[in-house]
Amino acid sequence: MDAASPPETQYAKSGDVHLAYQIVGSGPVDLLWFGAMASHVELLWEEPSVADMFRRLSRFTRLILFDKRGTGMSDPVAPTALLTLEERLEDVRAILDAVGSDQATIFGNSEGGQLGVLFATTYPERTGGLILHSTYARSSEDPAGTYPIGVPKEIFDRFMVFVEEHWGDRQFLEFVAPGLARDERKARWWCQFLRRTLSRGAALAQFRMNYETDVRALLPLVQAPTLVLHARDEKFIRSAQGRYVADHIPGARFVELPGADHFPFGDASDLIIDEIQEFLTGIREPAEPDRVLATVLFSDIVSSTQHVAELGDRRWREVLAAHDQAVRRQLERFRGREIKTTGDGFLALFDGPARAIRCGAAISEAARVAGLEVRVGIHTGEVELHERDVSGLAVHIGARVAALGDGGEVLVSGSVPPLIVGSGIEFVDRGPHELKGVPGTWQILEVSSTG
Predict the structure, then answer these.
(1) What is the reported pLDDT for 146?
(2) Which of 45, 97, 160, 181 sits between 20 and 30 A of 187, alpha carbons compared?
């Protein structure tokens, strides 16, 4: 697998059920990933922060991803079917047999942690380690009071009403992963992901099963080295649940992470990878940025300060919100990746310069209709991808190209036209320019027609 493409999806068979799985990397340790309820091994790679996490893990492991039966690309089950841990245990064994793994470290998120505990105690010889994230031993309240941190039945019933009303919407995401919900692009993607991978009926059935499942008696039987990770301020599964698990597994290490995200792909993802790497290898290494060829697009509202003075702060905020919404529509339309807003503009990445140019022209036209003028700068070059940002000389060049433009103009650097021959896009040569802070002289062109 190269740095830009997802791995091939393969299938294992557990009884009559076909299970989708992928292998990423070729490290010395097999790391089997038990995700939460909703899963889709191919869709997950569409979210850059998830892909970045998987690629980082694959640098020091052979990462094994799979969809549990009834989710993603594995065979479906009846929406209200209650899948037992024993059935899923057989599925896990089938996956490990298919990939030729005699022993693996298990990563279990949420109810996947319970499955990891069951696997570690049933097949200790095949369990090299156990990493549990935002998990629990039992979520229902113990009437005898020996497990006082469980959830009373009346609270669980209210939660089920909440799930039935809000599964896959913004309110649900804000409850389980507020860090992801703060990012507008990620929030939209994760809400769609939940809806596309698990129906409401299936989600309700799984929550009911998870509420009754109890692995407390198994915790003292775990022989594998164990790392327990939990977000300090999580509301969905409280950190006390994770601490209980760590306290009852012999020799387990408990790490409380900053933030409140139930999923491992949120605010603390870099720390989670650091902890996993140290647990498996004994060392921590800083993340190495992925370097890829990409097209950088910068947009900027012309005379924004003047607009604020004329409209006033409140009206300007309304205009700016409408502008941001319009830009995001065009980014989605042309498959651009929003990196961040720049106050009164955007930084976005594209995997093709022609789409970036057409998106820039569409953004400019949408702004004109709204009574604004936007300038756009585009450059293609190598960038360094980070989880929430990009860096590199190409980013600086894109910003400098945009700064040369006037309202309504879409400017590109000389690196762009040779890459879109035959696209029908036409340019007017604006001559050579020196770009502040960038060595050399750069040819600048204005887009005159998008074909």
Answers:
(1) 52
(2) 160
Check whether residue 138 and residue 252 sit in a common domain: yes
In a domain, 5, yes or no: no
Q: Which residues contact 55 (CB under 8 A, 6 or more apart)?
A: 3, 24, 290
| 97 and 202 part of one domain | yes
At 99 the pLDDT is 96
- Same domain for 342 and 316: yes
What pLDDT, on the 0 to 100 scale, is given for residue 142? Answer: 65
* Count of domains for the chain: 2
User: How many other CB atoms are there within 10 angstroms of residue 39's CB atom?
Assistant: 24
276 and 419, same domain (yes or no): no
274 & 303 share domain: no
Q: Are 418 and 441 in contact (CB under 8 A)?
A: no
Q: Are 266 and 298 part of one and the same domain? A: no
Element (H, E) at 28: none
Do the domain assignments include residue 257? yes
Please tell me the predicted confidence (pLDDT) of residue 184. 85
What residues in the chain have per-residue pLDDT under 50? Answer: 1-4, 147
Residues 268 and 300 in one domain: no
400 falls within a domain: yes
CB 306, CB 18: distance < 8 Å: no
In terms of domains, do 296 and 217 share one?
Answer: no
How far is C-alpha 345 from the geometric centre of its chain's CA atoms? 24
Give the separation between CA 368 and CA 451, rounded to whole angstroms: 20
pLDDT in tens, 121-139: 999 999 999 999 999 998 7
Q: Are 71 and 42 in contact (CB under 8 A)?
A: no
Segment 194-209, tens digit of pLDDT: 999 988 988 898 888 8
146, 101, 134: which is closest to 119 by C-alpha? 101
In a domain, 4, yes or no: no
C-alpha to C-alpha distance for 93 and 96, rounded to whole angstroms: 5
Strand residues in 237-336 grouped as ranges (E): 253-257, 290-301
Q: Are 355 and 378 in contact (CB under 8 A)?
A: no
**In sequence order, what are the residues at sequence separation of 6 or more whose Cβ sits closer than 8 angstroms to the Cβ of residue 220?**
248, 249, 250
The DSSP H or E segment spanning 387 is none
The 3-state DSSP class for residue 74 equals coil
Q: Which domain holds residue 321?
A: 290-449
- Write down the pLDDT at residue 1: 42
3-class SS shares of the chain: helix, strand, coil, % to 5: 40, 25, 35
Which residues are within 8 A (CB) of 337 and not within 5 positions of it... i.e. 6 or more apart? Answer: 48, 185, 331, 348, 349, 350
In three-state secondary structure terms, 66 is strand
Contact 215, 119 (CB under 8 A): no
